[in-house]
Design a protein that fits this description.
This protein is mostly helical. Helix content is about 65%, strand content about 0%.
Protein backbone atom coordinates (compact mmCIF):
# COMPACT_ATOMS: atom_id res chain seq x y z
CA UNK A 1 0.00 0.00 0.00
CA UNK A 2 2.88 2.35 0.73
CA UNK A 3 4.45 1.66 -2.67
CA UNK A 4 1.16 1.59 -4.59
CA UNK A 5 -0.65 4.56 -3.10
CA UNK A 6 1.96 6.44 -1.08
CA UNK A 7 0.34 5.62 2.26
CA UNK A 8 2.08 6.50 5.47
CA UNK A 9 3.08 3.95 8.09
CA UNK A 10 0.13 5.04 10.24
CA UNK A 11 -2.29 4.27 7.39
CA UNK A 12 -0.82 0.78 7.05
CA UNK A 13 -1.09 0.19 10.81
CA UNK A 14 -4.76 1.18 10.75
CA UNK A 15 -5.33 -1.16 7.80
CA UNK A 16 -3.80 -4.11 9.63
CA UNK A 17 -5.67 -3.28 12.85
CA UNK A 18 -8.97 -3.31 10.97
CA UNK A 19 -7.94 -6.55 9.28
CA UNK A 20 -7.28 -8.08 12.67
CA UNK A 21 -10.80 -7.20 13.81
CA UNK A 22 -12.22 -8.76 10.66
CA UNK A 23 -10.26 -11.94 11.29
CA UNK A 24 -11.54 -12.09 14.86
CA UNK A 25 -15.15 -11.66 13.75
CA UNK A 26 -14.61 -14.30 11.07
CA UNK A 27 -13.27 -16.79 13.61
CA UNK A 28 -16.24 -16.18 15.90
CA UNK A 29 -18.54 -16.58 12.92
CA UNK A 30 -17.05 -19.99 12.14
CA UNK A 31 -17.84 -21.15 15.66
CA UNK A 32 -21.42 -19.99 15.26
CA UNK A 33 -21.85 -21.39 11.75
CA UNK A 34 -20.52 -24.83 12.75
CA UNK A 35 -23.82 -25.44 14.55
CA UNK A 36 -25.82 -25.02 11.34
CA UNK A 37 -23.54 -25.94 8.42
CA UNK A 38 -21.31 -28.90 7.62
CA UNK A 39 -17.54 -28.53 7.56
CA UNK A 40 -17.20 -28.98 3.81
CA UNK A 41 -19.82 -26.27 3.21
CA UNK A 42 -17.90 -23.80 5.34
CA UNK A 43 -14.67 -24.77 3.61
CA UNK A 44 -16.21 -24.12 0.20
CA UNK A 45 -17.40 -20.71 1.41
CA UNK A 46 -13.89 -19.90 2.64
CA UNK A 47 -12.38 -20.92 -0.70
CA UNK A 48 -14.91 -18.83 -2.61
CA UNK A 49 -14.08 -15.81 -0.45
CA UNK A 50 -10.39 -16.35 -1.19
CA UNK A 51 -11.11 -16.54 -4.93
CA UNK A 52 -13.07 -13.29 -4.77
CA UNK A 53 -10.23 -11.64 -2.85
CA UNK A 54 -7.66 -12.72 -5.44
CA UNK A 55 -9.89 -11.54 -8.28
CA UNK A 56 -10.18 -8.11 -6.65
CA UNK A 57 -6.40 -7.80 -6.25
CA UNK A 58 -5.44 -8.71 -9.81
CA UNK A 59 -4.27 -5.80 -11.92
CA UNK A 60 -2.49 -5.54 -15.27
CA UNK A 61 0.47 -3.50 -16.50
CA UNK A 62 -2.01 -1.07 -18.09
CA UNK A 63 -4.63 -1.14 -15.31
CA UNK A 64 -3.87 0.49 -12.00
CA UNK A 65 -5.67 -1.04 -9.02
CA UNK A 66 -8.06 1.46 -7.35
CA UNK A 67 -7.80 1.98 -3.61
CA UNK A 68 -11.36 0.79 -2.93
CA UNK A 69 -10.77 -2.45 -4.82
CA UNK A 70 -7.50 -3.02 -3.00
CA UNK A 71 -9.15 -2.52 0.41
CA UNK A 72 -12.05 -4.82 -0.54
CA UNK A 73 -9.73 -7.57 -1.71
CA UNK A 74 -7.57 -7.26 1.38
CA UNK A 75 -10.64 -7.43 3.63
CA UNK A 76 -11.98 -10.55 1.87
CA UNK A 77 -8.56 -12.11 2.17
CA UNK A 78 -8.46 -11.56 5.93
CA UNK A 79 -12.00 -12.89 6.35
CA UNK A 80 -11.32 -16.07 4.38
CA UNK A 81 -8.13 -17.05 6.23
CA UNK A 82 -9.69 -17.94 9.63
CA UNK A 83 -12.50 -19.84 7.91
CA UNK A 84 -10.11 -21.99 5.94
CA UNK A 85 -7.68 -22.57 8.78
CA UNK A 86 -10.21 -23.47 11.48
CA UNK A 87 -12.42 -25.63 9.28
CA UNK A 88 -9.42 -27.41 7.74
CA UNK A 89 -8.12 -28.33 11.18
CA UNK A 90 -11.57 -29.55 12.16
CA UNK A 91 -11.92 -31.75 9.07
CA UNK A 92 -8.37 -33.03 9.43
CA UNK A 93 -8.92 -34.06 13.03
CA UNK A 94 -12.16 -35.85 12.23
CA UNK A 95 -10.78 -37.77 9.26
CA UNK A 96 -7.63 -39.11 10.93
CA UNK A 97 -9.41 -40.06 14.17
CA UNK A 98 -8.38 -39.62 17.78
CA UNK A 99 -5.57 -42.20 17.85
CA UNK A 100 -3.46 -40.55 15.12
CA UNK A 101 -4.00 -36.88 15.96
CA UNK A 102 -0.70 -36.50 17.80
CA UNK A 103 1.73 -37.51 15.04
CA UNK A 104 -0.36 -36.36 12.10
CA UNK A 105 -1.04 -32.90 13.53
CA UNK A 106 2.70 -32.60 14.03
CA UNK A 107 3.20 -33.42 10.35
CA UNK A 108 0.53 -30.87 9.39
CA UNK A 109 2.11 -28.09 11.43
CA UNK A 110 5.56 -29.00 10.12
CA UNK A 111 4.43 -28.89 6.49
CA UNK A 112 2.51 -25.68 7.18
CA UNK A 113 5.72 -23.86 8.08
CA UNK A 114 7.10 -24.28 4.55
CA UNK A 115 4.76 -21.78 2.84
CA UNK A 116 5.20 -19.39 5.75
CA UNK A 117 8.93 -19.41 5.13
CA UNK A 118 8.93 -19.41 1.34
CA UNK A 119 5.75 -17.35 0.84
CA UNK A 120 7.16 -13.89 1.61
CA UNK A 121 10.18 -14.44 -0.65
CA UNK A 122 7.95 -15.60 -3.50
CA UNK A 123 5.52 -12.69 -2.99
CA UNK A 124 8.32 -10.09 -3.14
CA UNK A 125 9.75 -11.74 -6.26
CA UNK A 126 6.33 -11.83 -7.95
CA UNK A 127 5.64 -8.16 -7.21
CA UNK A 128 9.06 -7.02 -8.38
CA UNK A 129 8.91 -9.24 -11.47
CA UNK A 130 5.60 -7.70 -12.51
CA UNK A 131 6.72 -4.14 -11.90
CA UNK A 132 7.86 -2.05 -14.81
CA UNK A 133 11.42 -0.70 -14.62
CA UNK A 134 11.25 2.31 -12.35
CA UNK A 135 7.44 2.12 -12.20
CA UNK A 136 4.80 1.04 -9.72
CA UNK A 137 4.66 -2.55 -8.52
CA UNK A 138 1.92 -4.80 -9.85
CA UNK A 139 0.12 -7.72 -8.22
CA UNK A 140 -1.16 -9.74 -11.17
CA UNK A 141 1.49 -12.48 -11.02
CA UNK A 142 1.05 -13.09 -7.31
CA UNK A 143 -2.73 -13.12 -7.13
CA UNK A 144 -3.27 -14.82 -10.47
CA UNK A 145 -1.24 -17.74 -9.14
CA UNK A 146 -3.18 -17.73 -5.88
CA UNK A 147 -6.47 -17.60 -7.78
CA UNK A 148 -5.48 -20.64 -9.83
CA UNK A 149 -4.46 -22.55 -6.69
CA UNK A 150 -7.70 -21.57 -4.91
CA UNK A 151 -9.75 -22.71 -7.91
CA UNK A 152 -8.09 -26.13 -7.93
CA UNK A 153 -8.57 -26.43 -4.16
CA UNK A 154 -12.26 -25.53 -4.44
CA UNK A 155 -12.84 -28.14 -7.16
CA UNK A 156 -11.10 -30.83 -5.09
CA UNK A 157 -13.04 -29.80 -2.00
CA UNK A 158 -16.34 -30.11 -3.86
CA UNK A 159 -15.36 -33.44 -5.42
CA UNK A 160 -14.26 -35.06 -2.14
CA UNK A 161 -16.73 -33.40 0.23
CA UNK A 162 -18.38 -36.76 0.96
CA UNK A 163 -15.11 -38.02 2.45
CA UNK A 164 -14.59 -35.06 4.80
CA UNK A 165 -16.30 -36.84 7.69
CA UNK A 166 -15.21 -38.99 10.58
CA UNK A 167 -15.01 -42.73 9.78
CA UNK A 168 -18.27 -44.45 10.69
CA UNK A 169 -16.51 -47.29 12.55
CA UNK A 170 -14.02 -45.10 14.38
CA UNK A 171 -16.09 -44.92 17.59
CA UNK A 172 -17.07 -48.61 17.71
CA UNK A 173 -13.86 -50.26 16.58
CA UNK A 174 -12.18 -49.76 19.93
CA UNK A 175 -15.18 -51.14 21.86
CA UNK A 176 -15.82 -54.36 19.94
CA UNK A 177 -12.83 -56.34 21.31
CA UNK A 178 -14.00 -55.53 24.85
CA UNK A 179 -17.42 -57.14 24.41
CA UNK A 180 -17.85 -60.85 24.96
CA UNK A 181 -20.82 -62.82 23.56
CA UNK A 182 -22.00 -63.52 27.12
CA UNK A 183 -22.14 -59.77 27.82
CA UNK A 184 -24.67 -59.17 25.04
CA UNK A 185 -28.21 -59.47 26.45
CA UNK A 186 -31.18 -59.89 24.16
CA UNK A 187 -33.65 -57.14 24.96
CA UNK A 188 -36.60 -59.36 23.88
CA UNK A 189 -35.93 -62.04 26.49
CA UNK A 190 -37.71 -61.63 29.83
CA UNK A 191 -35.52 -60.82 32.82
CA UNK A 192 -34.53 -63.82 34.98
CA UNK A 193 -36.68 -64.53 38.02
CA UNK A 194 -35.14 -63.56 41.36
CA UNK A 195 -33.70 -66.43 43.40
CA UNK A 196 -34.45 -66.61 47.12
CA UNK A 197 -31.44 -67.58 49.19
CA UNK A 198 -32.34 -69.09 52.60
CA UNK A 199 -29.70 -70.02 55.14
CA UNK A 200 -29.64 -73.34 57.01
CA UNK A 201 -30.31 -71.59 60.35
CA UNK A 202 -33.49 -70.03 58.97
CA UNK A 203 -34.67 -73.41 57.75
CA UNK A 204 -34.19 -74.97 61.20
CA UNK A 205 -35.93 -72.05 62.89
CA UNK A 206 -38.88 -72.45 60.58
CA UNK A 207 -39.21 -76.08 61.52
Amino acid sequence: AMALYGWSATDVYVLFAAAGLLSLCSALGVRRASKFFADHTQLLVGNLLLMCACACLIDTPRYFLPVARFVLGFALLRVSMPVQRLVTLSVYGKVIGSRLQGPYFGVLLGVGTLPRIAGPFWAVWAINEAAAPGGRPHLYIEFSSLLAAATVTTVLCAAYSHRMVAPATASTATLEPLLEPADIVDSEQPPPEPTLHVSEAEVRAGR
